[in-house]
Specification:
Elements: E1 2-3, E2 12-28, H1 31-43, H2 48-72, E3 76-88, E4 91-105
Parallel strand pairs: 1-3
Antiparallel strand pairs: 2-4, 3-4
Amino acid sequence: MLVTTTNDLAGYRIVRHVGVARGIVVRSRNIIAGFGAFLQTIRGGNITIYTKLAEDARHDAHEALLAHARELGANAVLALRYDANEINAGVTEVLAYGTAVVVEPVQQ
């Protein structure tokens, strides 16, 4: 699966637009991670526990996006974007979305 944040894909032409593909995950912090993050905030700097939680959530949303694009029959996703919203205290939704398309290499 080819994925790009741009609206086109160099070296390929769009054969068919399939639609919007998306992947959604909802994550919550756990008490142990929250306590560890609290200790890191005392020291200052990057809060690695939350960084890992954010990276894992984005990765899982991205994987869900790819699975949805494949279900739609796409072989590429254009204009990939991420969005995150707090649903409740300590509960965050991460959304990955883009335009699912079928592309083929440009013959030169």
